[in-house]
Write a sequence for this structure.
């Protein structure tokens, strides 16, 4: 069973309200003062943030053994790396770049328990920079599936991103596709998977969090 609390749930992700309502106030003030420019400023700003913080429901694939995308965006890397910080072993990695027009709510790629959640400060290079995965601010969430496999989701800040928000805590159980956090304003998510994962995407593919299938693994493998 997943947690009943899911901070990102709703038509608008919860972190967006602090941006939207002040601008709604500016719009209403503009109307009250009969100030067209002030009303338009408030309306344009509120409309942008409503769009940016949208949090649509997604059909979650239920096929056993599949890994779904944790993020909306474009696949910019599919490779094999050595992941020492959490996995301590070789891993297959998929990197997804989110531009400012993508949905920025991130989701659990597999069902599992949050084994670790760690924030690390860093710089703000462009998210596709080769060093961004090491140098940029990031939030790592380690999930342990029921069969013992471990999957690492790393939310990486980009050039514009200044806030990574986690919705989960260690020990929490997540369903596949459940919301686990978001990144504000342009960013990247790296997903580290076991070596036996079969990739079903390639560089250049567009994916959606919660609904696009990135890969699969054999259910009888450890």
């Amino acid at each position: 069973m997943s947690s009943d609390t899911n901070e990102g749930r709703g038509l608008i992700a919860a972190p967006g309200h602090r941006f939207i309502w002040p601008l709604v106030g500016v719009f209403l003030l503009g109307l009250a003062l009969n100030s067209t420019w002030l009303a338009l400023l408030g309306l344009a700003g509120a409309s942008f943030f409503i769009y940016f913080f949208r949090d649509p429901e997604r059909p979650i694939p239920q096929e056993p053994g599949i890994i779904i995308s944790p993020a909306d965006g474009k696949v910019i890397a599919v490779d094999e790396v050595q992941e020492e910080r959490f996995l301590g072993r070789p891993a297959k990695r998929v990197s997804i770049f989110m531009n400012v027009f993508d949905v920025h709510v991130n989701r659990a790629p597999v069902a599992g328990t949050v084994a670790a959640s760690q924030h690390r400060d860093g710089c703000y290079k462009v998210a596709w920079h080769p060093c961004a995965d090491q140098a940029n601010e990031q939030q790592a969430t380690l999930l342990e599936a029921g069969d013992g496999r471990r999957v690492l989701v790393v939310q990486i800040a980009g050039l514009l991103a200044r806030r990574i928000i986690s919705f989960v805590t260690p020990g929490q159980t997540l369903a596949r596709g459940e919301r686990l956090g978001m990144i504000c304003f342009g960013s990247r998510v790296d997903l580290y998977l076991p070596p036996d994962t079969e990739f079903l995407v390639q560089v250049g593919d567009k994916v959606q969090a919660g609904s696009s299938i990135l890969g699969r693994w054999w259910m009888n493998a450890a």
Summary: Residues 1-8 have pLDDT under 50 and may be disordered.
